[in-house]
Automatic annotation (TrEMBL):
Residues 738-863 form the Transketolase-like C-terminal domain. It catalyses: N(6)-[(R)-lipoyl]-L-lysyl-[protein] + pyruvate + H(+) = N(6)-[(R)-S(8)-acetyldihydrolipoyl]-L-lysyl-[protein] + CO2. Coiled coil: none annotated. It comes from Arthrobacter horti. It is an enzyme of class 1 (oxidoreductase). Its cofactor is thiamine diphosphate. NCBIfam families: aceE. This is Pyruvate dehydrogenase E1 component. Its EC number is 1.2.4.1. Keywords: Oxidoreductase, Pyruvate, Thiamine pyrophosphate.
Length: 912
């Protein structure tokens, strides 16, 4: 393929398309530079080049930015540090781990199990991990506090194999791979799942793209803890192991700017560039390493490429005219993949044979020597040099692009094949070849006993290589991965912090958003508790009335505020500070959830509890970042997520994409989320207090929960907490707030969130116009009522002699009258509890798309307003013969229920 046909991202583009008007002079300059490198070394040459580029800029000589370099190692041979380990010992047990990882997956594929697994990812990445384990990854007992390592999900068999070598796992455990219930007690999760293996894994990573962004925000969270004086994290590194195919996920690349902007030099990405995604090459017609180099360098990262192993060094030193480097530059990934699936003879002909110069370079090498020209990601010296350079680099995050072969060493059926990601079984031929390649002392007879039960291998704890391995881990602070639960005690807020919410709003109106923010202000003021709150708000603080925190809590920025604020004269001026408490990700919900996850797991990661409170437009929470909330649940994140500007009809004027009628349903699909739809400030106070007690109280049954509260922007009169309020009912999902004032046909109105005032108004209309006596209940959580009902169902299935009654059924046991359930959400929210009520049941809500209009018109359109509740109650009572059959029809006409302009439910205003 001609150079001009190559994708532009492959080459730097410095000379592409620019005519050379004097090749002889060019040659002299190039020779002069080569001599400089030879005589003075690469460091001196680098300074001279930087000086020339700077001079070119000063002279207005337009030189384009160098976004990519040649397809060779970033660190030249003369800059490589000496490898400090015992290469032979490390080679031995690395081979044992590669064998045991593959055998574990293979054994799980026998006919009576067949649970799957991945062999090829770890086979190709073993060196990348082992150099880290032996020389860089610090455990929890390291004096610096230990590192956080985000392991590539599909490489999990390798981590289990190492844990087996260290004595942390047994053969029985390995045989429990992917059999978490049937082998309970000796089971291993398929991927890194902290919730499933809470003492082993720290970070869930197999949902592609979430690992990269969570690693970035973990590095930021480390600095946040340090700058706020909560923990010294200055000697901790974050490592994220990623796949080159994974980098196509927008989440993988979309948050790189944060790491660069904040100078997170405590962060290292290691991208395993095996050139393959699940079904084929990542960039068959291009070069993914070059593309990623350009992308990361443009984003402000330090880039280190590890392309070729040491076997190439001699060839590159002999490449006087650059023919080999040019060939490396212009060969596309699809061809590189094919070469590793063929043979040395094939590589000689189809790669080196493409130019006379490169063909001559390898004339003295036989085919086996050509085949053994390794990729850089399999050379522990090259990888060690890259890791050392990354950890010593200051001022920027680092990405290491390491070229590997997927399925390395597994034999011709696996190496670099398109289908290798899905291949889980080894033939007897594969087993023997793999054993020979790794030099595992297992005989043919042992293998031939049972194809699906080949033996694991461990040389014994006294073997010198195992002693060495354990010494290395001890020196680095203990085994990884490891998750610990012990943390500093968190003193929960005193009663005083909730008083303002209990008092109500008096004569003024206040939205529940404002009621929450006022209470939050007092929580932050709490002497012991306040500093542990991590406020997280995308670019909407003023919308939610949280700009009051700018001058006091301040916005976190490790660089401070180095400009004169335009609103500096205002009381609520914008204020950034390294000590800031408010994390401001910008217009970036994905980053906000990543920050929430890092803060909400600091109790385990750092032993320092933080309580993240993430406030967002309710429409842009679970809908936009639901996968991230699942990862947060898997990581056992604790904290509060607040869906502000909630409801489908409450945020007037914004329209369809801002009208949330379904976030409670989405939240309910996450088992770790406790979702609430409170109506009043005092309800919010009790829910928040209960949530904190669940997360950090001494009597908690399940601390690893996230509380989701919807809060609205519609101002209402916030009542003071009534005498004898049913606190248990509030936190369990329902409490009675208003008894009927007349005698007459009975009904029940179950209202949630912003619809509670409509239910109270409907109670009044029913009494005055129809003589109907209605009880009104505030349903703080249909979701929790359903969760309780399901728990009762499960109990009753197995305990038919000890039947349990769901809480909702108990609450209405003495009130068998018709029920009308209403909310500003789709009917599916209230329909969740229908099976737990023997009463006649009607649900009202806001199904369908949102739109821009007044609150009154929108509610009349969706038929969830005051008069729709009245009509629904009358219909139920008419069906029971408790009111005249004509009553519903008369009410529809009386209240003009089909006229959207006749709606009267709700008021105007309410920005927050």
């Amino acid at each position: 393929m001609a150079a001009e046909e190559i994708t532009p991202s492959i080459l730097s583009g410095l000379t592409a398309g620019v005519p050379d008007t004097d090749p002889e002079e060019t040659s002299e300059w190039v020779e002069s530079f080569d001599a400089l490198v030879k005589e003075r070394g690469s460091e001196r040459a680098r300074f001279v080049m930087r000086s020339l580029l700077q001079r070119a800029g000063a002279q207005s000589v337009g030189v384009p930015m160098v976004t990519t370099t040649d397809y060779v190692n970033t660190i030249p041979v003369d800059d490589e540090p000496a490898f400090p380990g015992n290469e032979e010992f490390e080679r031995r047990y690395r081979a044992y781990m590669r064998w045991n990882a593959a055998i574990m997956v293979h054994r799980a594929q026998r006919a009576d199990i067949g649970v799957g697994g991945h062999i090829s990812t770890y086979a190709g990445a073993a060196t990348l991990y082992e150099v880290g384990f032996n020389h860089f990854f610090r455990g929890k007992d390291h004096a610096g506090g230990g590192d956080q390592v985000f392991f590539q999900g599909h490489a999990s068999p390798g981590m289990y194999a190492r844990a087996f070598m260290e004595g942390r796992l047994s053969e029985e455990d390995l045989d429990g791979f992917r059999q978490e219930k049937s082998k309970e007690g000796h089971a291993l999760s398929s991927y890194p799942h902290p919730r499933l293996m809470p003492h082993f894994w720290e970070f869930p990573t197999v949902s592609m793209g979430i690992g990269p962004m969570n690693a970035i925000y973990q590095a930021q969270s480390n600095r946040y803890l340090h700058n706020r004086g909560l923990k010294d994290t200055s000697d901790q590194q974050v490592w994220a192991f990623l796949g080159d195919g994974e980098m196509d996920e927008p989440e993988s690349r979309g948050l790189l700017q944060l790491a660069a902007n904040e100078g997170l030099d405590n962060l290292n990405f290691v991208i395993n560039c095996n050139l393959q995604r699940l079904d084929g090459p990542v960039r068959g017609n291009g070069k993914i390493m070059q593309e990623l180099e350009a992308f990361f360098r443009g984003a402000g990262w330090n880039v280190i490429k590890v392309v070729w192993g040491r076997e190439w060094d001699d060839l590159l030193s002999k490449d006087r005219d650059g023919a080999l480097v040019d060939l490396m530059n212009t060969t596309v990934d699809g061809d590189y993949q094919t070469y590793k699936a063929e043979s040395g003879a094939f590589v000689r002909e189809h790669f080196f044979g493409r130019t006379p110069q490169t063909k001559e370079l390898v004339a003295e090498l036989d085919d086996e020597q050509i085949w053994n020209l390794k990729r850089g990601g399999h050379d522990y010296r090259k990888v060690y040099a890259a890791y050392k350079a990354a950890t010593e680099f200051k001022g920027k995050p680092t990405v290491i692009l390491a070229k590997t072969v997927k399925g390395y060493g597994l034999g011709t059926h696996f190496e670099a094949r398109n289908a290798t990601h899905q291949m889980k079984k080894l033939t007897m031929e594969d087993l023997k070849a793999f054993r020979d390649h790794l030099r595992i002392p297992v005989s043919d007879a042992e293998l031939e006993k049972d194809l699906y039960r080949p033996p694991y291998y461990h040389p014994g704890t006294e073997a010198p290589e195992i002693q060495y391995m354990m010494e290395r881990r001890a020196a680095l602070g203990g085994s990884l991965p490891e998750r610990r639960h012990k943390h500093q005690e968190l003193v929960l807020p005193a009663e005083k912090a909730y008083e303002v919410a209990h008092k109500g709003s008096g004569k003024q109106k206040a939205a529940t958003t404002m009621a929450f923010v006022r209470m939050l202000k007092d929580l932050l003021r709490d002497k012991d508790f306040g500093k542990h709150v991590a406020l997280i708000v995308p670019d909407e603080s003023r919308t939610f009335g949280m700009d009051a925190f700018f001058p006091t809590a301040k916005i976190y920025n490790p660089k401070g505020q180095n400009y004169l604020s335009v609103d500096r004269e205002l009381v609520l001026a914008y204020k950034e500070s390294p000590l800031g408490q408010l994390i401001h990700p910008g217009i970036n919900e994905a980053g906000a959830v990543a920050a929430f996850t890092a803060a909400g797991t600091a109790y385990a990661t750092h032993g320092v509890p933080l309580v993240p409170i993430y406030v967002f437009y309710s429409m842009f929470g679970f809908q936009r970042t639901g996968d991230s909330f699942w990862a947060a649940a898997d990581q056992m994140t604790r904290g509060f997520v607040i869906g502000a500007t909630a409801g489908r009809t409450t945020l007037t004027g914004e329209g369809l994409q801002h009208a949330d009628g379904h976030s409670l349903i989405l939240a309910g699909t996450n088992p770790a989320v406790r979702a609430y739809d409170p109506a009043y400030g005092y309800e919010i106070a009790h829910i928040v207090r209960h949530g904190l007690e669940q997360m950090y109280g001494p009597d908690s049954q399940d601390p690893n929960v996230m509380y989701y509260l919807t809060v609205y922007n519609e101002p209402i009169h916030q009542p003071a907490q009534p005498e004898g309020v049913d606190v248990d009912g509030i936190v369990r999902g329902i409490h009675h707030i208003s008894a009927p004032t007349v005698d007459g046909p009975r009904a029940n109105i179950l209202a949630a969130g912003v619809s509670v005032p409509w239910g109270l108004e409907a109670q009044k209309v029913l009494a005055e116009d129809w003589g109907v006596a209605a009880d009104v209940f505030s349903v703080t959580s249909f979701n929790e009522l359903r969760r309780d009902g399901i728990a009762a169902d499960e109990h009753n299935l197995l305990n038919p002699d000890e039947l349990r009654t769901p809480y909702l059924t108990q609450k209405l046991a003495d009130n068998p009258h018709p029920v009308v359930a209403v909310s500003d959400y789709m009917r599916a929210v209230s329909d969740q509890v229908r099976q737990y009520l023997p009463n006649r049941f009607t649900s009202l809500g806001a199904d369908g798309f949102g739109f821009s209009d007044t609150r009154q018109a929108a509610r009349r359109f969706f038929k969830n307003d005051t008069h729709s509740i009245v009509v629904a109650v009358l219909q139920q009572l008419a069906a029971e013969g408790k009111v005249d059959a004509s009553a519903p029809r008369e009410a529809i006409a009386k209240y003009e229920l089909t006229n959207v302009n006749a709606g009267t439910t709700g008021g105007a205003g309410g920005d927050a």
